[in-house]
């Protein structure tokens, strides 16, 4: 699919990424921060870059409707299978659609919350997706972007080792210019065993950096920082 950057982890190792999803945010800090700023109870939600749908049931538990949008068809199929037996795609207000972030298959002003977690919105270059989110949001709706904090050790240090051209300051300035309020959220990735921790670090980093990360991660947990970025669509005049 054109204009889609392959995800280096979940596209190739969805089973290991499932372990990662279950380990992430073991303290619940991310979910608490998100709900505090934009409670989706009874509202219409779209999860952009939903992957294999890990977060969809959590939204669907209280939202009015939930749409997962995923550009990679194999992951979209896995997301639909996840929903089977709980809330089936197309029924009870939950659905999965194949599309990129810059061409959301949704009507204008049709949702209250656009959520994207470590997907697509990584700073300069994501302007088409920002415009699409603005298009589908109702006035007063919120775009919530959750991204890893590359300035937060130790995980951020490992990120920068693999991405030497990634500048957290430039990313922060980008989102500030685009009207986002960003807050830091600290949480813990907690695994059942060392094997799981090592497998997840192995799909997140190059072999050299993964070895370093494993060596610097005693036990079964890793402290990780995130940036929660929020922008609310004006209810009056459109932002210029």
TrEMBL record:
Keyword set, alphabetical order: Methyltransferase, Transferase
Biological process according to GO: methylation
Location of the Methyltransferase type domain: 46-145
Gene Ontology MF terms: S-adenosylmethionine-dependent methyltransferase activity
Pfam families assigned to the protein according to its UniProt record, in alphabetical order: Methyltransf_11
Cited InterPro entries: Diverse_substrate_MTase, Methyltransf_11, SAM-dependent_MTases_sf
Keyword match Zinc-finger: no
CDD domains tied to this protein: AdoMet_MTases
Key word Protein transport present: no
Similarity section: Belongs to the methyltransferase superfamily.
The protein's name: SAM-dependent methyltransferase
Species assigned in the record: Haloactinomyces albus
Organism phylogeny: Bacteria, Bacillati, Actinomycetota, Actinomycetes, Actinopolysporales
